Amino acid sequence: MLKDEFKGYNLAKLAKDLMAGLTVAAVAIPLALAFGVSSGATAAAGLITAIVAGILISTLSGAYYQISGPTGAMAAVLMGVIAQYGLKGVFIATLIAGIILLLAGIFKLGVLTTFIPAPVITGFTSGISIIIAFGQLDNFFGTHSTGGSLIEKIGSYSSLGFQPKLATTLMAVLVVIALFIFPKKWNKVVPASLIAIIVTTAITMVFKLDVATVGKIPTSVISGDRLQLGSLDLQTVKNLIVPGASIALLGMIESLLCGASAGRMTGKALDSNQELIAQGIGNMILPFFGGIPATAAIARTSVAIKSGAQTRLTGIFHALALLVSMLLLAPIMAQIPLAALAGVLVVTSWRMNEWSAIKYLFKNKFKSALILFFLTLVSTVIFDLSTAIMMGVMVGIVIFVAKSSILDVVVEDVDLSKVETAQEGLKADWAVVYITGPLFFMSADRLDKALQPLHERDLVIFSLRGVPSIDNTAMAVIQDFYQDAQKKNHEVIFSSVQPNVMKMFERSGFEETAGKDAFYFSVDRVLKEIL
């Protein structure tokens, strides 16, 4: 993979990688700081994550275009973990997630994400956006709340009071307005979020505004708050297995969805299993630097592609640019107002919604898809990621099974007057049973009831062209009907049997019981040969 990627590499391509890396870094700085804060960790943790992940995961990634770092969705998941287990808990959960992702890549389990219905992903994303936006209420308004979950935080205002600070609120509102009205063509040159951060920081420093700021930014990529092997204990690890699995699941979903989207943009497919290995190794190492979980980020990845990224060096250059910024600008970064980051996050949360997909669901009134969307959205806000996705998938399966159980059975009498080869005046008590839909335990009862009136017919022809599959339960219904017909010296014939159904007939021994003469290509062929 690397050999093909760097084939014909020259100074011109190196220059493109360097410029693309610097462009991505400009986008990543405000996002890394904001996601570090919104996760409940620190801005420094977000920056360290972007640097370490940018170097390590980019080097091992399953595609040259993937840019990894902290994301909004991951930050939302971490809020609950930090509230319950603290920063140490996040480090341990990240390590667990890394191990799970590494194993998923080794055992080629990336395909599992394809089993999650699209409305579930859309609902989960919208739920995460709500958590991010409302999770910034304190930073946005300068208020104070308590509680581990979003609902608990909002509920705490009833006892603590909600008294917004004018300077903080005004700054956050102005940042939101600025980001929405900033011309898109200018945004391609310099990210609006970066300009907003620079301007608000300058205003805060010059006028010495009384607003909360990011606080101390270390001048080292190794934080004082980091995971130490000696701090691990078995009970804590056990408690954090579920949060770790949630982080791993989200990392898998985000990274592979990002890769699929970027692959369509570049025409070069992502090696999904290698990507999971890279994400796994990266997240196993990040806690020892003081970083939070990382995953491939579509915003930074798309910027890299549009900026002319040629190889994975773009991701490495972006990380090095962040490192230089951290070393040189740490005192200034420490003065960044939290209100400005809150404004950036509110806009980010709005934009991360899959609005085109949501509009499509409502416009076309897809009831089952809308049920999955709202169920996952509400579950994400009220419960957690794993619960939300599991509920969405399980309900999706129930809906699928319910729809699959709808069996169309049409019984038509054979009108011999319309059959060319039939003798004039010939009469017969024959019927054709046209079946459409899968035959399995959920539809077996419907089939049995449809066949009840046909037990006295001299000949029954089953047309199974519309039956893609059959299970043992439905097979038993057909066998019982056939055996009853044999006892009464009636005939049963099958036409247009699909390959999968024929295999079941063979495995069950029914083909041998009925005989090969009982199977025809079509109903017309049956009637022509009999008559």
TrEMBL record:
Compartments where found: Membrane
Main location: membrane
GO cellular-component term (any): membrane
Keyword annotations of the record: Membrane, Transmembrane, Transmembrane helix
Gene3D superfamilies: STAS domain
Single GO biological process annotation from the record: transmembrane transport
Entry's transmembrane regions: 18-37, 44-65, 85-107, 114-135, 166-182, 189-207, 240-260, 281-299, 319-348, 369-402
Cell membrane recorded as keyword: no
Segments forming domain STAS: 432-530
Signal peptide: none
Pfam families for this protein: STAS, Sulfate_transp
Topological relation to the membrane, as annotated: Multi-pass membrane protein
Protein name: Sulfate transporter
Biological classification of the source: Bacteria, Bacillati, Bacillota, Bacilli, Lactobacillales
